[in-house]
């Protein structure tokens, strides 16, 4: 026997179990695939069901979001109208106070 063969076998033998355990699924996959077809089909059915439920939930959320945006737009329009009204009242009050200041100055200067 060759002198290099004994040390090579000693180095490889502890790893034989790891190599075989890694290679076994490759050789047994065909029989396992036949057994897993039913499981795979069931998983596909469950995923399709979940996808359709997700699509329905997304539709519901989109409808809720649409109504929320509409309510926000309506609230913004109301707030803008109130702000415009407050600005007009503020301008009217400023004009009235300026007029009363002018009247007060005229009365003071006429004495």
Counting DSSP H or I runs of 4 or more residues, the number of helices is: 2
Contiguous low-pLDDT stretches (5 residues minimum) are none
Instruction: Report the β-strand fraction as a percent range.
Output: under 5%
What is the global morphology? elongated
The major pleated sheet works out as:
none
The N- and C-terminal alpha carbons lie at a distance of: 137 Å
Q: What's the overall average pLDDT, rounded?
A: 85
Computed CA radius of gyration, to the nearest angstrom:
43 Å
Q: Which class of secondary structure composition applies to the elements?
A: mainly alpha
Q: State the share of residues found in helices, binned by percent.
A: over 70%
Order of helices and strands: HH
Number of strands: 0
TL;DR of this structure?
With 111 residues, the protein is mainly alpha-helical. Helices cover 93% and strands 0% of the residues.
Write up what this structure looks like.
Helix content is 93%, strand content 0%. The protein is built from two helices and no strands. The longest helix has 95 residues, at 16-110. The protein is elongated, with a radius of gyration of 43 Å.
Essential attributes:
0% strand; single chain; 2 helices; 111 residues
Walk me through the topology.
Layout lengths: L4 H8 L3 H95 L1
């Amino acid at each position: 026997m060759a002198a290099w063969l004994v040390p090579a076998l000693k180095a490889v033998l502890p790893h034989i179990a790891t190599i075989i355990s890694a290679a076994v699924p490759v050789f047994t996959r065909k029989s396992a695939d036949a057994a897993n077809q039913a499981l795979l089909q069931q998983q596909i059915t469950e995923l399709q069901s979940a996808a359709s439920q997700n699509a329905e939930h997304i539709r519901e959320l989109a409808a809720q979001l649409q109504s929320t945006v509409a309510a926000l737009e309506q609230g913004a329009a109301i707030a803008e109208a109130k702000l415009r009204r407050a600005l007009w009242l503020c301008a009217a009050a400023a004009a009235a106070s300026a007029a009363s200041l002018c009247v007060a100055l005229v009365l003071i200067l006429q004495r």
